[in-house]
Design brief:
- The chain has helices at residues 6-18, 22-29, 45-53, 88-142, 146-160, 164-174, and strands spanning 33-35, 58-65, 72-80.
- With 180 residues, it is mainly alpha-helical.
- Strands 1-2-3 form a 3-stranded antiparallel beta sheet.
- It is elongated, with a radius of gyration of 27 Å.
- The two termini are 44 Å apart.
């Protein structure tokens, strides 16, 4: 989610908390969703009450197709502080702008996914290094094979209900395997 200010953020979060509202409706159905006057709309009473409290009197939610299958997975929300703020020209501009917003949202999603993968890979590399060190300690001290050393770590992990990486880190740091 990205927003231009606290009003948009609050109204978007209200919809996410309630699981309903014009944004979610547009995203789920692929329909352009307009509330001409939030004081008179009864489709999402909790949302419209909150919108009126915050001074939002009309809104326009434009569905965004973000993935390659052209599935709608988001919406561009435009909020106004006056009723009937959107005419045919503004709806047309919003609809024509939506594909550009979808590209930006898709790029952000792709970037975040790549960052998550990189973070997971970094964690895996760090985990592997400490697990390999712990295996080496067990192999030298107990004259075990690499597989036997890993099985020892895995068994201690199961018995203590802790991750193998944490068991390995404890062994590398203290020189001992943790006890129950």
């Amino acid at each position: 989610m990205a927003s231009t200010g606290p009003l948009a953020t609050d109204l978007d979060e209200t919809q996410y908390d309630e699981g309903q509202g014009p944004c979610l409706h547009a995203a789920r159905t692929g329909e352009l969703t307009e509330i001409p006057d939030t004081r008179a709309d009864d489709r999402w009473p909790d949302y419209t009450r909150r919108a009126v409290e915050h001074g939002n009197l009309s809104s326009l939610s434009v569905p965004l197709s973000i993935d390659e299958e052209d599935q709608v997975t988001g919406a561009l929300n435009i909020y106004a502080r006056r009723p009937d703020a959107f005419d045919e020209a503004s709806r047309s501009v919003a609809t024509r702008f939506a594909p550009y917003a979808a590209v930006a949202a898709g790029n952000l999603y792709a970037y975040q996914s790549a960052r998550d993968v990189a973070d997971h890979l970094q964690t895996a590399l760090e985990s592997r290094a400490v697990i390999d060190q712990a295996k080496g300690i067990l192999m030298e001290r107990r004259k075990l094979t690499a597989d036997q050393a890993f099985q020892t770590l895995a068994q201690v992990s199961m018995k203590t209900n802790r991750k193998v990486r944490d068991i390995a880190d404890y062994l590398v740091t203290t020189g001992e395997l943790p006890r129950r």
